[in-house]
Design brief:
By secondary structure, this protein is α+β, with helices and mostly antiparallel strands. Helices cover 25% and strands 29% of the residues.
Length: 253
């Protein structure tokens, strides 16, 4: 472990690393306090703090009388959840494909540096891709990724694996923030999405892992071909079954 960090943080990093590498998978049991004390030569207080903070941050779930387990970061879905567009398209029974327009190493400037909380000139990877649903352009993904977070990013085949799937696989998503707005697309967006004089729907998204922002993306969609959907039930109230509600997608007026 790195002696420059507090022992509880070293222990957290060790467990997060095992989750990120896939050694510990969703629902797998995490070593107990006693096991961590024995295997990592830390105090019980240190082990307890590490597991408690991992639980608070969403990496694990502590179940009384059973133990601590790796969280399933894909088990819930709502309007503001970070979705993999390939999965969205597959759920509709359609075919996803992707075209990589650009991939490059850049130095963070302006709003990219500000969004990622890094100094001007920090290395970032830039990805520009068009996602298609049944061969119709549905999303232009303009994403910046902190190079130190995903050093192998530019080596990936993003025409077969989406950036979202790749990034989620190398490290669990800890937190996300996004804004959705209508926009008048510029010439480049119009060209890539094959649209003329229609508004686009833009999702501006920033995601965190290990306590820091690691990606910043603008996701452009043709206004006539894309919509965001979700279902919300107050805490403690069971969700109404789909058979008992009128589907909003059927209400077009």
């Amino acid at each position: 472990m790195n002696a420059a960090k507090p022992r509880y943080q070293q222990l957290k990093d060790l467990i997060i690393g095992r989750i990120s590498s896939g050694e510990l998978k969703p629902s797998d049991r995490v070593p107990s306090e006693n096991e961590l004390v024995e295997s990592e030569s830390v105090s019980r207080m240190t082990a307890n703090r590490a597991l408690r903070e991992l639980d608070d941050e969403g990496y694990v779930e502590r179940v009384a009388g059973r133990g601590t387990f790796v969280s399933d970061f894909r088990s819930q879905s709502h309007l503001l959840e970070v979705h993999n567009i390939a999965d969205e398209i597959a759920l509709r029974g359609h075919m996803h494909s992707c075209k990589v327009i650009r991939r490059s190493l850049q130095h963070a400037r302006g709003e990219v540096a500000k969004a990622l909380h890094v100094a001007q000139g920090t290395d970032v990877f830039h990805l520009l891709l068009v996602h298609f649903e049944n061969d119709v352009a549905i999303q232009l993904e303009d994403r910046h990724v902190l190079a130190s977070f995903a050093p192998d990013c530019l080596e990936q085949d993003f025409e077969s694996t989406t950036p979202s799937a790749y990034l989620t696989a190398i490290a669990p998503l800890q937190e996300a923030e996004q804004v959705v707005r209508a926009s008048v697309p510029n010439a480049a967006v119009k060209k890539h999405l094959n649209i003329d004089d229609e508004a686009s729907l833009v999702v501006i998204r920033r995601t965190w892992s290990d306590g820091r922002p690691v990606t910043f993306a603008r996701l452009h969609h043709p206004g006539s071909r894309y919509e965001l959907t979700g279902h919300y039930a107050p805490p403690g109230k069971a969700r109404t079954t789909l058979a008992e509600v009128v589907q909003l997608e059927e209400l077009r007026q």
